[in-house]
Write a structure and sequence with these properties.
The chain is of the alpha/beta class. 31% of the residues lie in helices and 11% in strands. A five-stranded parallel sheet has the order 6-1-7-8-9. It has a two-stranded parallel sheet with strand order 2-3. Strands 4-5 form a two-stranded antiparallel sheet. Helix 3 runs parallel beside helix 5 and helix 5 packs parallel to helix 7. InterPro entries: GDSL (IPR001087), GDSL_Est/Lipase (IPR051058), SGNH_hydro_sf (IPR036514). This is Lysophospholipase A. GO terms for molecular function: hydrolase activity, acting on ester bonds.
Length: 339
């Protein structure tokens, strides 16, 4: 669902971007072990299915059913099955929190690290720059507005902002949807990320001070882009967006002063997997199994022309990575968060 529904070995932290030091100043110190919850926003790389969500798109609500009450949110459960994410299994936020990994239903409140996921598959940052994929799609800007109105007032009754980490992975659809625009792309991406952080300001006003941003994966190396000499988006576009994100994150940290802002270089980690797949138990990085969405794909993959199991593929489908890749990425992210 990358284009129809929807990630730095380099460390780029924090209120004062301390690139080299493994021991940031006390005001910048990030203690992942002390966090009780991950509150996530983004697109299909991040969304999880909820029992009160839009099927195949969200944990809760949509643009046409925007509001929800406390009972709906607190009774909502994470669904874990083959179609409950865009990856055929758990994704990075579930692996990172260990919340919702088991098949069936999980209440976020029962997890030692709670996962409250407000990402919406197919989301872009704002309709100011790209159109909605569907009339029910919730853009990143609206995800945060929705959370401010309906989510935060409920969650903050039992989750202090200081015990929550805000995670944002967005831009995948934006860069793909706009890849053929006739614009100055560095300026365009600068404007996109400015809007992103203007929206994040609302979370700051709600008291949140810990922020994790994921930069873009190597979108120029999706199966379709590997098969053409003119990929859309191309590597330069991806790099420009990632540069803009890093710059705006640094600016956000400096302006606020009392926040920790970390940008995880998902691009480098995922590129390393593509460059040396055998190290990660991956045998196919150039295409995906055509039967990825078949109910018996895990046990009957050869029937669909796939010589090896789904978890040996990097790409789950034309634009998403397999759950196996998400598990590796989440493990590396968890180690990095503890630094």
């Amino acid at each position: 669902m990358l284009w129809s529904s929807e990630l730095i070995l380099t460390l780029l932290p924090f209120a004062a971007f301390n690139v080299a030091s493994p021991t940031p100043r006390s005001r910048d110190k990030f203690d992942w072990s002390s966090k009780k919850a991950l509150i996530a926003f983004g697109d299909s790389y991040t969304y999880v299915q909820g029992t009160h969500g839009h099927q195949n798109y969200s944990f809760i609500a949509d643009q046409l059913n925007f509001s929800y009450d406390a009972e709906t949110l607190l009774s909502n459960k994470i669904v874990q099955n083959q179609t409950a994410t865009a990856e055929g299994g758990p994704n990075w936020v579930e692996y990172l929190t260990k919340c919702g990994l088991k098949p069936g239903l999980t209440s976020p409140k029962t997890c030692s690290k709670q996962l409250w996921d407000f990402a919406f598959a197919g989301a872009d940052i704002s309709t100011e720059y790209t159109p909605l994929h569907h009339n029910y799609t919730v853009s990143l800007v609206n995800q945060i507005s929705q959370f401010k109105s309906y989510g935060a007032p409920v969650l903050q009754t039992f989750l202090k902002p200081s015990k929550s980490l805000i995670a944002v992975w967005i831009g995948i659809n934006d860069v793909g949807d706009s890849s053929k625009y006739a614009v100055n792309f560095p300026t365009f991406y600068n404007n996109l990320t400015s809007t992103l952080f203007s929206s994040v300001d609302k979370l700051y006003d709600l008291g949140y001070r810990s922020y994790l941003f994921m930069n873009l994966p190597p979108l120029d190396r999706t199966p379709g882009n590997q098969a053409t000499t003119t990929p859309h988006p191309n590597a330069t576009q991806v790099a420009w967006y990632n540069d803009a994100l890093a710059s705006k994150a640094e600016q956000f940290g400096k302006e606020k002063g009392d926040v920790e802002v970390r940008v995880f270089d998902a691009h480098s980690r995922l590129s390393a997997m593509l460059d040396d797949p055998a190290k990660y138990g991956i045998v196919n990085t150039t295409n995906f199994c055509a039967g990825y969405d078949q109910p018996d794909i895990d046990t009957n993959y050869k029937a669909y022309g796939c010589p090896t199991p789904l978890d040996t593929y990097f790409w789950f489908n034309s634009g998403h990575m397999t759950s196996h890749v998400h598990s590796i990425l989440a493990a590396e992210l968890e180690d990095w968060l503890k630094e």
